[in-house]
Records
---
Amino acid sequence: MTKRQKRLTLVLGVLAGVAIATGLILNAFRDAMVFFVTPSEVMAMTEMPERKFRIGGLVEAGSVVRDQQTVQVTFRVTDTAVSVPVTFEGILPDLFREGQGVVAEGRIDSQGVFHADKVLARHDEEYMPAEAQAAIERAGHPPGAGKGY
Amino acid sequence: MLPELGNFALVLALCLAIAQSVLPLIGASTGNEPLMRTGRSLAVGQFVFLVFSYFALTWAFVVSDFSVEYVARNSNLALPMQYKITAVWGGHEGSLLMWVTILAAWGVAVAAFSKALPREMLARVMGVLGMVSVGFLAFTVLTSNPFNRLLRVPADGADLNPLLQDPGMIVHPPLLYMGYVGMSVVFAFAIAALISGRLDAAWARWSRPWTTVAWCFMTLGIGVGSWWAYYELGWGGWWFWDPVENASFMPWLVATALIHSLAVTEKRGGFKVWTLMLAILAFALTILGAFIVRSGVITSVHSFAADPDRGIFLLGMLAVTLLGALLLYALRAPRVGFGGGFGWYSRESLLLGNNVLLAVACAAVFVGTFYPLALDAFGLGKISVGPPYFDSVFLPLMIPLLFLVGIAPQVAWKLADPVETARQLRWAFLAALAISVVWPLTMGLWKPLTALGLGLAAWILLTAALDIRNRMMRRRSQGIGSMVRSLRPSFFGMHLAHAGLAIVVVAISMVNSYEVDRDVRLGPGETASAGGFEFTLMGVEPVRGPNYDADQATIIVTRNEAHVAVLTPQRRYYDSQPENPMLQASLNRRPTRDVYVSLGERLEGEAWLVRLHYKPYMFWMWTGGLLMAFGGFLAAADRRYRLARDRAFITEEGLAPPKRPVGREVLE
Amino acid sequence: MKLRRVLLPLVAVLAILGLFYVGLGMDARELPSPLVGKPAPAFELESFFDPEVTITEADFIGEVALVNVWASWCVTCLREKPLLMELARQGITIHSFNYRDTRADAMRYLSRDNNPYTTIAFDPDGDAGLEWGVYATPETYVLDARGMIRYKRIGPLNAKILEEEVLPLIARLEAEKP
């Protein structure tokens, strides 16, 4: 091979690598992307999606009920307009609190109950998860008003 | 008064840094030797002032001077003394002061160990380091001054975030900053090479130990951070693909690529412009990391309080760095050239593979971290990508990379024969295959991905052992002493670091496949099981710590009726914020597994929520990380680099690749 | 050829920097409140210090004042407190709601570093919070002398916001006071 051909093979090899990598990334995105949905949007759903998604908002005051015999806990997530019932099994994060921001990731059943397998609250400093904030913001601004979400 | 002096010293350091970023560069371009020499003394002066400034802040913490706003926010009277001292870097402003102090320390180290560098080169390196210092010092003074006073002195301070009151958090930031800041030294070397348009083997030999040492600190910093998250956050997770973790992981990936690319540049004079590009990228990524953590552009578990002004400043720094460096690169890189050619199968080509894989991995992390931000910025909806994305991208990239780790050290530079490699390594390959089949069976359940991970780890370990054996056997006739001496630190260090990587891979494969996490409700005397262990709650009682109250559970762990351990997890209520209890996990560590318990909330009666963890091979994770860093330090300490340092040589032929015999030679 | 080689990376770098810049500007906390420009909503709560005493919106009205919503479990409130202390020292009236809290916890919170508040209405169930549209703690309102809400901040105050928005607004409101 001439030097030119060698260089060409090299460049082609690297390009092929990059192409494969891009494919990998895109593919991974398709499977791993978790959409964020607000309680109002959940209410507006006609068909419950099978995919995992996230909902965010505030933990409705007085809605947290710990089952005393199992590890299950139920609460409602509200964007101040509507609220969605959520169940979760296990220990809630340190800063989970009524009236504070929360994000839950999981699936919704046909009854409209959200089964969270992950509950996120902030650890400190930040007083509300950005997604929870967005949910409330969107509830306060019907489509067309304010920021274009 | 002392805080004002500290502030004054900080400003003086900034002035010196400004001088350092101008004078040596003028000297280098006009050939004025006294001006070139200023770089050294200015760096030392800067360091002295910053150390003073740092101690002034520490003193304010020690004597609880709450008139200093930063102290009032991050300490209080009841805080134990060791945490008062470490609280200096517990918040944004103080950690930044630590950052610039470490930067100045690296500057002094470069000045001290570079007597033999060509003087123009040293002047340029010091000049660029001065510019980096100006950037971070101005950032500190203008947006984040730790010495700001409060008009009204509070009686007591807020507190150091209880999550940070922990030994892991004491060492994590300094280690990580050592690594981050080390990247600016590498960057300074790269820019100096671009300015002069010259990049020779001496340059590469020069930059290599600095790069390796910075990489080691970064490795340790990331490892300790992961360890801290593992036991302090109490969730049993050790890596979350959190944006802040990614912020430290991206420069690490690029630095790893850089280490390997530098090897080619030193040994073969190849990959030159690519090496420079990696050095620039690694540094830019450390600034990006600071931006992610300190601007609030991405919210995360452990980012500092958001302030858009700081974000703008850091963004400006990033812009200046990237645009300036890339412009210089575009102008000068053609002069530097790519360097020597190589065959399609050679150590160079395999290391190129390593570089491509690592660069792509870094790009994948970058995309995963910022794609959600991009969507949000354009109003296309909020998404999150989380661990599944990173897992599914990383796996296919890491498999070939780990396979290459086993091969590349055995392959000759320039041109090699794959058939020969296959012949050499066939037994190692078969043995690794056998191990991948058998080892997972010890866990009771065979899983293909675990088998693959363990097989690759075994492959790396076996080939390393083979390479070490081969090298020693070649000196067999010269006696045992010569055989041991043939294992030069750089050679042995490389294999140690690779072995460390293999051990980490074992831990990841095992823990991802076989870990058990269970949340259970336990009353006194009740038992639950997880991972083959039985956990019995004996009782929960209140205990008192130095600045917190806690509920402490006593849990007896048994396996097949045999006693294993008594664990005492706590739920702590710090005096400063008793409303926010913190989990303090308790763990029992054995070489092949951790058993780990955290105490959740109280239920009705005497029952508690308890999280039980069984984590196989977690110990290997931390051992492997330590081994990687140790291997790196060993390699950086090789006598070869010291020789390069002590010998005053100025190569004039510059661009010519080093004349070295072609053939089998070991990557060091 | 040469130009193109420079241009492409340049565009990519600028695009990324631009993205970060846009990202920085997305301060999700700036929610315009429907209450701004409206009179302070009515409420009736116990005084924090004395359950016998009732506090209503009338107790908040009369001078230009801040209304701060806080709770002892709110870490951010604790961090905001030194600023409020400073404001109180400057003679600015700060009314407040103690939000979803217990008296014992809140008392400890206040005793740690004195009390910046002129009035504290005790709102353990968040009743008034609902009327006032409280999203989360801390929140701060600015009332003019006639009891109109003129400004609302969700999240903690900081020195910059105080100097650029709150303090000038207070000065203006003081000036237009009859």
Note: Chain A touches chain B through 43 residues (CB under 8 Å).
---
Amino acid sequence: MALEVNGKTYETDEEGYLLNLSEWDEDIAKVLAEGEKVDMTENHWEVVNFLREYYNDYQIAPAVRVLTKAIGKKLGAEKGNSKYLYELFPYGPAKQACKIAGLPKPTGCI
Amino acid sequence: MNETTGGIEDDEGSGIVKKFMFVNRKAPYGTIYALEGLEVVLISAAFDQDVSMAFLDDGVYQLVKGQHTKALAVKNFSPTYRALEGYDIEKLYVERESLEMRGLNADDLLVPVEVLSSAAMGDLMKTQDVVIGF
């Protein structure tokens, strides 16, 4: 599969995850978000940027339980809970937010 | 079951927890064992089991600091061992003899570990319900 952004084509896997994460930029994220029917707000960007940082540090996309805990640690308990994250990304914070962040599908995602 | 827990937590709490040890014996690159083993461990964390990892033989190289894989054209996945703590996998055991034979000690490793003698490692393995080798 492929994704077209500003006239350029980017390769994705069969589920729409970007294959080469170094190609990622905010315009690509916006197109990926549209595909997920997610309206990006500041709170969405906060999670997406957190995930990119996590991937940069650990070279994996975290499982949702781990993401929730890590967000709570960094951004506070009012954001580090499933309810908040599922409100932002109704079809699964790890799955949807990772896709928008240009990361592979989370390891341990069941 | 009682009024305060409503039964739901009771059901989850009554799941049998087994002791799983994942034994890593191979160098990180050259074969897929180390990476696949690490992925299995990360997935196993979702099942609320008592998970530990053991590193023996060339497996100790998986944890060595300063890995550079550019020349091999493969991904350096060693930073992922530092994510294990976030997955609540904190029991990492390394065999002393394997370290010494390779001129290494715990300070050369990416993550805090417990260094055990070969005999102590064997005793620990005996206490496990499941031992899976990679």
Note: Chain A has five helices and two strands.
